[in-house]
């Protein structure tokens, strides 16, 4: 029997929502401050996914997100197909709930519009009912609204442009024993029941709950349908119920893996004779609570089980980039809304990043850092960087970016160019770990990241023929989680605030070669 291994996406794809249209599966995920945002992934088997587009070229309001707003931006979105259109509904906790549509998930997508303004409105999901009415469910963020742990439904018009009725709280988590941080609701209808699937208990410590009612307004009864149990899969946090053409049901959810981010798992799901769903394996009442009573309907998250449509092993989206085509591939994102003058990608095998000044003098506050997610398996990243321009203090290199960061690359000094390895924390600022004169105008840099997130840094001359011997910087540095996201690997070119720069100042990068778990990626 063909099996696959969880997680199916072993990198930071937070808050996944997935639908099937015909034989195609489509997934979107939170992107927070990253731009472009709202990644769109495609699969034919629910196991192997390709990152095909980003629905949001810039995060609105565009001027607000011209600077990195870590932890803000696009929170948990929902994806639906209705009336011939694909719909994405996403929250910005500081501005409201937004909507955009497309006839093809690969794009183009419309400009987003705000259907429900306000602070603290999160995790929306629409439902077009069979009587012609349309509803939107959402949660609350206490950091903005002062309340959380409740689910609210509001009636909207079928085009999701305006609210047409009062909002009502349909589930109050404070009234449910042991519930906290109830969020991430997904609203659907089956066999005359309104269903809300929602996690509670916290991102890394919670569980999945199913709520059902004969009325969209409640009252709702509930069961816990998936929790960690005796497995190593903590959470399991919010996700999506999706069916296959043969009528089987599956549930995708994420697990928080610290610096590796929120990785995606796929669980089997079935409906019991009493109409309630069960997820995971075994599909029996286990584990037990503190009183020893069996908890009906609670499954365990599983690591291996039959492939739903049987075509392959999990395959992370493509990582390497030879820059052989003009422009940037969907796998890359910036830390803020980009400007057109940040980069030149002519398609000749190189990428030029123009040096940018960070408002606070560090890379965490610089929007022009071009990143990918850190894979959840051991990975190796290698590229060649050349420092261009003569402005003192200009630097270019490869960074592992989170709430703290470290980088290796080149820096122009008054006396020439140095090879530099530096680390940054909010308490210490950037500090040299290693520095010496550069061996030439080009530098090969390599990052080797192990299963714990420990990074080994190496470098060597990039001008000569053949493959150079690389020297390792003594010691390792452990990648640090970001704000609601995992750590990222990025390319950058920067300069001190106030430096006189022109377009030639910056860094030019050769192809980025990535292996994950020893395989080309």
Notes on the protein architecture:
There is one protein chain. The protein is mostly beta strands. The protein folds into 2 domains: 3-306, Tachylectin-2, Chain A; 340-520, Jelly Rolls (Sandwich), CATH 2.60.120. The chain has 1 helix and 40 strands. The strands form 8 sheets. Strands 24, 25, 28, 33, 34, 35, 36, 38, 39 and 40 form a 10-stranded antiparallel beta sheet that branches. Strands 26, 27, 29, 30, 31, 32 and 37 form a 7-stranded mixed beta sheet that branches. The radius of gyration is 24 Å and the shape is globular. The two termini are 27 Å apart. Residues 283-297 have low confidence and may be disordered.
In short:
By secondary structure, the protein is mostly beta strands.
Could you give the topology of this structure?
Layout: E1 3-5, E2 17-21, E3 24-28, E4 37-43, E5 50-56, E6 78-82, E7 85-92, E8 96-102, E9 113-117, E10 121-128, E11 134-140, H1 142-145, E12 150-156, E13 168-172, E14 186-190, E15 193-200, E16 207-213, E17 221-227, E18 237-243, E19 249-256, E20 262-271, E21 277-279, E22 299-300, E23 304-306, E24 343-344, E25 351-354, E26 356-357, E27 369-373, E28 379-388, E29 395-401, E30 405-413, E31 416-425, E32 429-437, E33 442-449, E34 454-461, E35 471-472, E36 477-478, E37 488-495, E38 506-509, E39 513-516, E40 519-520
Parallel strand pairs: 17-22, 26-37
Antiparallel strand pairs: 1-23, 2-3, 3-4, 4-5, 6-7, 7-8, 8-9, 10-11, 11-12, 12-13, 14-15, 15-16, 16-17, 18-19, 19-20, 20-21, 24-25, 25-38, 27-37, 28-33, 28-38, 28-39, 29-30, 29-37, 30-31, 31-32, 33-34, 34-35, 34-36, 39-40
């Amino acid at each position: 029997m063909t099996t696959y291994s969880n997680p199916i996406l072993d990198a930071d794809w937070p808050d996944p929502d997935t639908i099937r249209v015909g034989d195609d599966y489509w997934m979107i995920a939170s992107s927070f401050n990253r731009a472009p945002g709202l990644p769109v992934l495609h699969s034919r088997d629910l196991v192997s996914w390709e990152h095909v587009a980003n629905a949001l070229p810039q995060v609105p309001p565009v001027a607000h997100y011209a600077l990195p707003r870590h932890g803000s931006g696009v929170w948990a979105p929902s994806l639906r197909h209705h009336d011939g259109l694909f719909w994405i509904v996403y929250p910005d906790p500081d501005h409201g709930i937004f909507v955009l549509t497309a006839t093809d998930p690969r794009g183009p997508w419309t400009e987003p519009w705000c259907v429900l303004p306000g602070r603290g409105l999160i995790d929306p999901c629409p439902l077009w009912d069979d009587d012609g009415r349309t509803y939107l469910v959402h949660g609350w963020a206490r950091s903005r609204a002062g309340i959380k742990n409740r689910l609210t439904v509001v009636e909207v018009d079928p085009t999701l442009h305006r609210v047409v009725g009062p909002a009502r709280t349909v589930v109050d988590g404070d009234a449910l024993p042991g519930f906290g941080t109830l969020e991430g609701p997904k609203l659907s209808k089956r066999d005359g029941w309104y269903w809300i699937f929602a996690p509670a208990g916290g991102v890394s410590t919670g569980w999945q709950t199913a709520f059902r009612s004969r009325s969209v307004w409640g009252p709702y009864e509930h069961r816990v349908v998936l929790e960690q149990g005796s497995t190593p899969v903590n959470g399991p946090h919010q996700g999506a119920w999706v069916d296959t053409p043969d009528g089987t049901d599956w549930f995708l959810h994420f697990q928080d893996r610290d610096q590796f981010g929120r990785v995606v798992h796929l669980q089997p799901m079935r409906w019991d004779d009493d109409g309630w769903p069960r997820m995971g394996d075994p599909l029996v009442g286990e584990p037990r609570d503190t009183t020893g009573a069996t908890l009906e309907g609670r499954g365990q998250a599983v690591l291996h089980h039959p492939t739903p449509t049987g075509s392959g092993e999990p395959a992370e989206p493509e990582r390497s980039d030879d820059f052989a085509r003009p422009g940037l591939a969907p796998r890359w994102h910036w830390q803020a809304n980009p400007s057109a003058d940040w980069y030149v990608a002519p398609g000749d095998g190189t990428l030029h990043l123009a040096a940018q000044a960070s408002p606070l003098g560090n890379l965490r506050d610089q929007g022009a850092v071009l990143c990918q997610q850190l894979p959840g398996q051991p990975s190796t990243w290698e590229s060649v960087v050349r420092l261009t321009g003569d402005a003192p203090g200009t630097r270019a290199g490869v960074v592992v970016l989170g709430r703290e960061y470290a980088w290796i690359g080149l820096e122009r000094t008054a006396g020439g160019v140095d090879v530099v390895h530096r680390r940054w924390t909010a308490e210490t600022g950037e500090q040299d770990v290693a520095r010496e004169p550069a061996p030439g105008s080009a530098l090969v840099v390599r990052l080797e990241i192990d299963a714990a997130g420990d990074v080994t840094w190496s470098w060597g001359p990039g001008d000569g023929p053949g493959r150079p011997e690389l020297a390792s910087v003594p010691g390792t540095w452990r990648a640090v989680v970001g704000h609601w996201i995992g750590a990222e690997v990025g390319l950058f070119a920067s300069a001190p605030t106030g430096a006189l720069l022109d377009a030639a100042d910056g860094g030019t990068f050769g192809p980025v070669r990535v292996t994950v778990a020893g395989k080309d990626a």
